[in-house]
Structure formats: C-alpha cells, structure tokens
Amino acid sequence: MSKRDVVFPPGRQALYERNRYSPAIRSNGFLFVSGQVGSTEDGSPEPDLETQVRLAFNNLNAILGSAGCTFDDVIDITVFIVDPQETFETIWKVVPEFWGNAPHPTLTAVGVTWLYGFEFEIKVIAKLPETIKS
C-alpha cells in the first residue's frame, strides 16, 4: 500500500493523533475529509448548536485551506444530525453562511442518535485544484 498523503490543519494535529485518524487524505485528484464537528481546540463539544455548526464549518474550512481548496471545490457532502426533527431548522439557517452559490454539491443528510456529544457532523469530498498534485 502506498503511503497516505495526509492533510493536517494548523494547530489540531494532537487532537487527530489522540483519536487515531487523519483529518483528510489526498488521493487521485480528490480530497477525502473526515467528519468535522463543532469542537473547541481541546476537542470538547461546543454547547450552543448554532456555534457548534459554525465551528464544524470553520474546522472543515481549515482542512480545505490546508489542502489548497475552498468550499467551492467540494463536490459531495454528508451531514449527520442528532434529532433532525428538532435541530434541522437551527442547523440549516447557518448553512448558507458557508455553502456558497448554486450549483451546490451533492448532499446526503443522515439522522443519527449519537455523535460523541455533538449534534452535527459534516464530511466532504472535494476536487483538488489542477495545480495541486495528489
């Protein structure tokens, strides 16, 4: 197996090492980003849902930026939402701040019962810009 081309955002490598996963992997012109949550710097959940969603997007954008991408390069999104019937509207009013203009990426939304203390998680696949080798 070839060595994984891991992307680490600034200042959070210890969090990923402690939890034993890579924040993102570059492969064949794509960036595969692990699920991002609204964690504070120590990895704990942000208690306010709107702030938690913004932090998840900020954490995602830090990884995208470390790989030379922006949210405009995202082609596929999966979101995981605890209790979507109760939280969807609160979450979805934050989304336009980060989503950008149409055409939008593909989206799969999954309702879950547990996210390790979080209420929202977002994972994406992005197309690396042509100038970036993978």
From TrEMBL:
<dbReference type="GO" id="GO:0019239">
    <property type="term" value="F:deaminase activity"/>
</dbReference>
<dbReference type="InterPro" id="IPR035959">
    <property type="entry name" value="RutC-like_sf"/>
</dbReference>
<dbReference type="Pfam" id="PF01042">
    <property type="entry name" value="Ribonuc_L-PSP"/>
</dbReference>
<dbReference type="InterPro" id="IPR006175">
    <property type="entry name" value="YjgF/YER057c/UK114"/>
</dbReference>
<protein>
    <submittedName>
        <fullName>Enamine deaminase RidA, house cleaning of reactive enamine intermediates, YjgF/YER057c/UK114 family</fullName>
    </submittedName>
</protein>
<dbReference type="InterPro" id="IPR038743">
    <property type="entry name" value="YjgH-like"/>
</dbReference>
<dbReference type="GO" id="GO:0005829">
    <property type="term" value="C:cytosol"/>
</dbReference>
